[in-house]
Amino acid sequence: MTLFDTAGERRSLAARLARSGVLSSSELRAAVEDVPREAFLRPGVFLPEGEGRWRPVVAARTAPEEWAAIAYSDRSLATQLDGHLTADQVGGLVRGTPTSSSTVPATVVSMIEALGLTEGHTVLEIGTGTGYSTALMCHRLGEDNVTTIEVDPQVATRADDALEAAGYSTWTVTGDGLVGHPWRAPYDRVIATCAVRRIPYTWIRQTRVGGRILATIGSWAYGTGLAEVTVHGDGTARGRIVGRSSFMQARSQATPTHLGDLEARAAYADTERATRVMPSLLEEWMPAFLAQLGAPGSQFVHGADSTGAPVLYLLDNERESFASFREGAAGWVVRQGGPVALWDRVEATLIAWRAAGSPDVDSVRLHITDRAHTYWIGSDGTGGDPVEQPPGGVVGPLRWVDRVA
């Protein structure tokens, strides 16, 4: 493939991001205009073809103009499937689950803008991915002020090679980002490009007082929220969910794709009753987010019984609990089993949320200690921190505690 100057595409991308309000700082705009996104997509990408199929596009076998158009499109680009497969390893359509990608530029840039970077700041990035976001921050702060961690050795190697080729000899680490990188701490900013069930307290320990952490919270593929918290001198962090966000889960927390025999899981119910709200509400973003607060660690699954009739499930493997839902002529019926009545928790939350006017995710506040994450909607009425609550998950219809232990 011949060399192709993408300076025009980079300027066009920066202009689009500025017009949309995503890109505001002149320093980051210079980074977008200088850093070639296509250099961080090798050996290639997978483009969706529907029905779970992907079409591989290899940089070395693609016309420069077409490759540039793909690289500067306003979409996320899958760069790895099933934890190992890259585009150069297949010759036609393939099925698989994306396990690494180059996130849509608008999301990357908006998150970096939200960090409020200034000269001299140091950043810890969890999830190097392709290395494109790393390069943007290196351009902004200098390569020695950015540390990035990637759990997948193959992905880390490709990113490191791309960063070196682009002129950024930054600190690239292969390892579990959930434990951070204490050897270069403390950091002024921590940013995660993967979703986590809760913000690890190790990140808080590794952040300076007054420093900021930006991470997507949630364990579902949707219904997740972008949390922004500030670290305080008492060892806690406080903040809020600033908007909707969608990232792949951290590898060690990823939900299994094969759940086995769902009917067998739900064979023995302790209770059965009509629901007060439709469980299909969990297909919407904010109700899904609330369900993850009310029943942390749960999964919402579409299934079918032996006759092919649709069945919805709310499952919690760790607590060996389930709720299954069927729609009949009189409405939805829920069967629950196990030590935790999952739907009771979630349903109470959804009813209270609707009564409060159905606020969106940016209404959720967050307080983190070494023992628990406390979430609540709106003000606690005192202007201060939420009152410490007893263990047990939901402690009120619009207040939740997710205990670390």
Description:
- With 405 residues, the protein is α+β, with helices and mostly antiparallel strands.
- The protein is built from 10 helices and 21 strands.
- It has helices at residues 7-19, 26-34, 64-71, 105-114, 132-141, 153-166, 201-205, 262-265, 285-294, 342-355, and strands at residues 44-50, 53-58, 77-81, 94-95, 98-102, 123-126, 146-150, 171-174, 187-196, 207-217, 224-231, 237-245, 271-274, 299-304, 310-316, 321-328, 331-337, 364-368, 372-377, 394-396, 399-403.
- The strands form 4 sheets. An 11-stranded mixed beta sheet has the order 8-7-6-9-10-11-12-18-19-21-20. Strands 13-17-16-15-14 form a 5-stranded antiparallel beta sheet.
- The protein is globular, with a radius of gyration of 22 Å.
- The model is unreliable at 381-394 (pLDDT under 50).
